[in-house]
Design brief:
280 residues; three-stranded antiparallel sheet; Sufe protein. Chain: A; GMP Synthetase, Chain A, domain 3; globular; 18% strand; Arc Repressor Mutant, subunit A; 8 strands; 45% helix
Length: 280
């Protein structure tokens, strides 16, 4: 029995936006019944290419239904430009997380959204075909898709790749090829992200490294959702920050400060750091 969050259970038992929009502006179809999962996403646009409505039809497990339901809730109200930035991890995060063995359902949602937008941009509503060389013939997964899930989700093992896109989950004949792709992608990306931090830092060095980490590791994730963060002061191991934008009113702000901001600063600056919010 999978350990589903209450949000996943809710979107499975009470899925939002089930159905198909008549005369939609965008259509995205991915997967196949032969592979066990299929999703059709239809979208109606309003003024300024803003998503006025989104509906889905899916054939799959509880995670597939919940992921599809969550996707439609996430994108409604977004412009297409904003929706293009939605990732499979955004879908999983919206649901509170998915079991790793079910992450391929969130990937399917992201693929359907991309297919819908791509079909709208090209003026075609036909199902988008596979791109790239097929590596897993059992599930029709291409080299391009494997490379992408490895890169975007920082995967390192064949089993993880299978969880995210099903590749290697059938006869297993492609597993050695999958490992080569993983090694190649990780070999290209595993470069030092920053210079080794000094064993002893002056307060100026610490502040500079904190600022660099915020700009590189933290701010991009916040800005994507309309938020931001400002470094107010550093007092010993206390890092005083003030949330900005949507982060300033988000009820989950304390969790963000702990699980993202403090975690990243401890990883890249010092394990002794504590992040505290300062009300502006």
């Amino acid at each position: 029995m999978w350990d589903y969050t209450d949000t996943v259970k809710d979107h499975f038992r009470n899925p939002r936006n089930v159905g198909e929009i008549e005369n939609p502006d965008c259509v995205g179809e991915v997967g196949s019944l032969a592979c066990g999962d299929a999703l059709k996403l239809t979208i109606r646009l309003g003024e300024g290419e803003r998503i006025a409505d989104a509906k889905f039809l899916t054939f799959g497990c509880a995670s597939a239904i919940a992921s599809s339901s969550a996707l439609t809730e996430i994108v409604k109200g977004m412009t297409l430009a904003e929706a293009e930035k939605v990732t499979n991890q955004d879908i999983a995060d919206y649901l509170g997380e998915l079991p790793e063995q079910k992450m391929h359902c969130s990937v399917m949602g992201r693929e359907a959204l991309e297919a819908a937008i791509r079909n709208y941009r090209t003026g075609s509503t036909e199902k988008v075909g596979l791109e790239g060389r097929v590596v897993c013939t059992c599930f029709g997964v291409t080299e391009t898709e494997i490379e992408r899930v490895v890169r975007e989700n920082d995967l390192s093992e064949i089993e993880q790749v299978t969880n995210y896109c099903k590749a290697g989950g059938g006869c297993g004949a492609c597993r050695s090829e999958i490992q080569k792709i993983v090694d190649r992608v990780r070999g290209a990306s595993e470069q030092p992200r920053t210079a080794p931090r000094p064993a002893r830092m002056t307060n100026i060095q610490k502040i500079k490294l904190i600022e660099e980490t915020i700009d590189r590791e933290i701010r991009p994730s916040l800005v994507k959702d309309g938020g931001d963060i400002e470094l107010i002061d550093v007092e010993g191991d206390r890092v005083l920050v003030s949330p900005r934008g949507t982060c300033s009113t988000c009820p989950a702000s304390p969790i963000t400060l702990k699980d993202l901001v403090e975690a990243k600063l401890r990883e890249f600056v010092s394990e002794e750091l504590r992040v505290e919010e300062v009300k502006a």
